Amino acid sequence: MKKIILGFAALSLIFASCNKDEMTNEQEQINYNGEIAGKSRICKSNEVLEEQIKSNPGRLQVLEEIENQTKSFIQSKRPGNGGSGGGGNDNEPPTDFPVVTIPVYVHVIYNSSQENISEAQINSQMQVLNEDFRMTNSDANQAPSEFADRAADTQIQFTLAGITRKFSNKTSWGTRDDMKKSSQGGVDPIDPAKYLNIWVCNIGGGILGYAQFPGGSSSTDGVVIGPQYFGTQGYVAAPFDGGRTTTHEVGHYLNLRHIWGDGRCRQDDYVNDTPSSDRANYGCPSYPTNHCKSNDMTMNYMDYVDDACMYMFSNGQKLRMRSVLESGGARAGLVN
Asked: Structural domain tally of the chain?
C-alpha cells in the first residue's frame, strides 16, 4: 500500500541513496534511480531535480508545499470526504473531472536534417499524448485483471499551440537546460505558466528525455525529448518509437514519480494504487513480475519498459496529476 504521508524528512528520502538497505547481489547492480547497466531507457528527471535542490535548497520546501496541496486534494476525493464512492484494497476510486486541455509549444532544435523532424512526426506525438492520457490507446485493454480496474482516463488532453525551429552547431545538449536558453543557443520557453513547452533535441548519453517537476524555475520549465523518441513516424528508433517517452516525461511534468519510487521497497511514488517495487523494469516483461512481495505494474507509463509494453496510468496517478491542475495547484495556469 502506498501511503501519502509527507514532511521535509520524508520528501528528502526521494533523493537519498539507499545504500543502507539490505540488497541482494542482483539488487547491487541497480542504482537508486532504477537503472541497470546495459539497459536502454534512461530518464533523467529525478537527477535533474536533485541538481536543482543542490543549487537551490528552497526548491525542496516548494516541493513539500506542492505535496501538501496534493495530499489534501486527494483526500477530498475519497469516500466519506465528499468524493466519489467505491475503492478499497488500496485502490483509489475512479473520480470524474471536467476534461481540461493543455496547450503545447514544440521547439525543434536540430543539427541535421533528420533531427529537424517533420510536422507529421510532431502531430503523431500529439495523437499519442491524447490517446494515452484519455485512455483511448488501442492497447488499453491489455491490462491484466489485477490492474484493469485501476486504469484511468485522466481527462487531460493536449493541443498543439505552435512549433519553433532552430538550427544549432551543437550535436548534443546534455541535461543542464541549455536548450531552453537563447543565450546558450537554445530557445527560451514561451509563457510556461500557460503552455507546456517541449524541446526536441539530441540530449546525448543515451538519455531519452527528462522533465522539470512542478515548482521549478519558469525559465527552464517543460520537457525535453530526443528526436528519435518523439512520435511514431519519421525519425524514430525502436523500441522507443511509440511516443511513450513523451507520455512518461509529461507524467513527471504533472508531478508523477517513477513507479518504483526511485529507490528500494521502502521508497514510494506517493500513489496509493501502484504496487511497491525496488527497481525499474525493462523490455517487455511477462506478467506476473514480482518484487517487494507484490506484482509490479510493469505496464504503467512511469516504468521503464519498451513503448509497446506500457499502456496505462492508474486512478491514483490521475489524482496526483489533476491536483496540480486544480485552482491553487502548481500548474493551474495551464487550464484555460
From this structure: 1
Q: Is residue 213 part of a domain?
A: yes
**What would the grid cell of residue 108 be?**
525543434
User: Are 321 and 154 a contacting pair, CB within 8 Å?
Assistant: yes
Task: Give me the CATH number covering residue 66.
Answer: 3.40.390.10
- Which residues span the domain enclosing 179? 8-17+25-329
pLDDT, tens digit (0-9, with 9 covering 90-100), for 4-34: 444 444 454 444 433 333 333 333 344 445 5
Give the residue from 254, 223, 247, 272 showing the smallest Cα distance to 321: 254
Asked if residue 334 belongs to a domain, the reply is no
pLDDT tens readout for residues 192-227: 999 999 999 999 999 999 999 999 999 999 999 999
Catalytic residue numbers read 249
- For 157, the enclosing helix (H) or strand (E) is strand 156-167
The one-letter code for the residue type at 61 is Q
**Within a domain: 2:** no
Residue 148 domain-assigned (yes or no): yes
Full-model pTM: 0.90
Show Cβ contacts of residue 178 under 8 Å, excluding neighbours closer than 6 positions. Answer: 170, 184, 185, 186
**Distance in Å from the first CA to the final CA of the chain:** 35
